[in-house]
Amino acid sequence: MSKLHPVIESVTKRVIEKSAESRARYLGLIGEAAERDPNRHVMSCSNLAHAFAGAEEDQAAIKAASGPNIGIVTAYNDMLSAHQPYGRYPEMMKIHAREVGATAQVAGGTPAMCDGVTQGQDGMELSLFSRDAIALSTALALSHAVYDSVALLGICDKIVPGLMIGALRFGHLPAVFVPSGPMPTGISNKEKQKVRQLYAEGKATRDELLESESASYHSPGTCTFYGTANSNQMMMEIMGLHVPGAAFVTPGTGLRQKLTRAATHRLSEITRDGNDFRPLAHCVDEKAIVNAAIGLLATGGSTNHAIHIPAMARAAGIVFDWTDLAELSRVVPLLARVYPNGSGDVNHFHAAGGMGYIVGELLENGLAHRDLRTIWGGDLSDYTREPMLDDGELVWREIGESGDDNMLSTVAEPFQPDGGMRLLEGNLGRACFKSSAVERRFWTTEAPCRVFQTQKDVNLAFERGELDRDVVVVVRFQGPRANGMPELHKLTPALGVLQDRGYHVALVTDGRMSGASGKVPAAIHCAPEALGGGPLSKLQDGDVVKVCAETGELSTTADLTSRVSAADPAPDMGLGRELFAMFRSLADEAERGGSAMLATAGL
After folding, report:
1. Contact 273, 414 (CB under 8 A)
2. Are 89 and 224 in a shared domain?
3. Which residues of the chain have pLDDT under 50?
4. Phi/psi zone of residue 187: left (φ > 0), alpha (ψ -120 to 50 degrees), beta?
5. What's 169's DSSP letter?
6. Which of 2, 319, 395, 408 could bond 402 through an S-S bridge, CB–CB 3.0 to 4.6 Å?
7. Cβ–Cβ contacts within 10 Å for residue 192, how many?
């Protein structure tokens, strides 16, 4: 067993030390909640009768408290392809619960918006704060206090972090994340399912599975590029919060159904009344948070998690910032090339060895914490294997070497020696730079800037030919307090064209990009944001700005100290944006998670 890398050990130690007070306060709160035990065992008859009145055939079991009662928090809707399969999960999970003497109830639902639908639209300004709304919805669902454990049904961008934040405030309860898997990628469902079934049963080779996956196409399930949604699923695996290997098994298959059944059964086993109590508060500790960051770096995951990981950590009393992320990035190599950072999608990634291979390679080389308290019962070694069906039963097998060297590599021969997430600092603040998505020759750009306040204005200037030169495009007033920090992917095509024309181009913004970030160098999530007088508010057209991932520099040669900030713009109204004014006004910086809820809760 390899010794933990000294930098990972050092970063983890620092996270533990700076979190000591807040983590102790959190665990104290969770301990008090557990001791109060405000559940159906001690409820008044009137309270309890309300709780099981709609439970139909499970009424008697809940009334008698004859077994654990599982609360299901679901982010189901059938507009969002990743969540469409969840429509039938509750009924299936109720049946699975009865198999082991347990019951299950839908505790509540949460919003689930699709960034793919709202990308570049006004609705995107609600996206980041949907995470707060999801966390609040999760808390409302669990406030009924009649549950012994929690099934969290969510996949996409803000949904998993929101579920996590809400569930952590009920951290005295065990919780398991239950995914539904990615959509297929093209050939007929019949042929695709046949090959997957054969592979799950050990009757098809990995090469045959890879050939099948390379020809698949879209349907219900998670989008197959490696963006925030699939980065979420990666993190739940490397934090030990899934059934091992559950992340990237497609919907509607026998293997997927068995994994959901196993999650339900496990939720009945890890309750306080059982012999293997695993409350979420003790599963999500400092080591688990560090592992989440390591997984993000090793797989080239979404830059959105530079915001979400600190926010999830705060909900557990843990302090994790971009300095921690950058230091980890220097020693965690890039082991995966998944579209848009490679040619194959997540189905190809899974077929080549997927998360089991990644976790195994990291553990073998001392690059991740093995000794996590996972929901599965052992340590993280359980997550180095892949699930399959053996005569219809769920089992796990060893993975071995990478099934595709263009998709998954080794620590000895990585695609890139670092994790590709760099911290930039200077007189323009702090920002993130996803170097794994950008060719090294573009890592440094120093040029006069052009300042904008909307994506539309950038594209209009491009169409007029005003950006046909070396230029740093600054798009400001896009932070959490300004307009909810939308993603800015409408900028990517125009800036990519300028780069292809031979110009040195970079983007600087206090807005967001995601796992779909493209080839153009970008300093994103700039903090402090422009609204309220941040450095970006003082830039003027023509100021020379330097963006350098080599040295970690984000600066201007202009003297900003004597300048007056540009006027804060009035927030746009309509399409519900005015309802989120409270969230905008109370939100904190991106590096702390960009959350109004966590900021006002004193976390």
Report:
1. no
2. yes
3. 188-189, 515-516
4. beta
5. T
6. 408
7. 23
Instruction: Answer yes or no: is 156 a known binding residue.
Output: yes
* pLDDT recorded at residue 197: 55
For residues 301 and 439, membership in a common domain is answered with no
Q: For 89-102, what is each residue's pLDDT tens digit?
A: 999 999 999 999 99
Query: Residue 116's domain spans which residues?
Result: 6-36+67-183+218-397
The beta-strand segments (E) located in 125-240 are 149-153, 175-177
How far is residue 373's CA from residue 469's CA, in Å, rounded to a whole number? 54
The two counts, helices (H) then strands (E), for the chain are 23, 14
The H or E element that residue 457 is part of is helix 455-463
163 and 266 housed in the same domain: yes
pTM of the predicted structure, to 2 decimals: 0.93
Query: Residue 555 domain-assigned?
Result: yes
Burial class (CB in 10 A: 0-12, 13-18, 19+), 140: middle
Residue 223 annotated as lining a ligand binding site:
yes
The total number of structural domains in the chain stands at: 2
Left, alpha or beta for 74 (phi > 0: left; psi -120 to 50: alpha)?
Answer: beta
Answer yes or no: is 61 within a domain. no
- For 11, the token pair is 């970063």
Cα end-to-end distance, the chain, whole Å: 37
Helix crossing, 254-269 with 89-99: angle to 10°? 50
- Please tell me the predicted confidence (pLDDT) of residue 412: 97
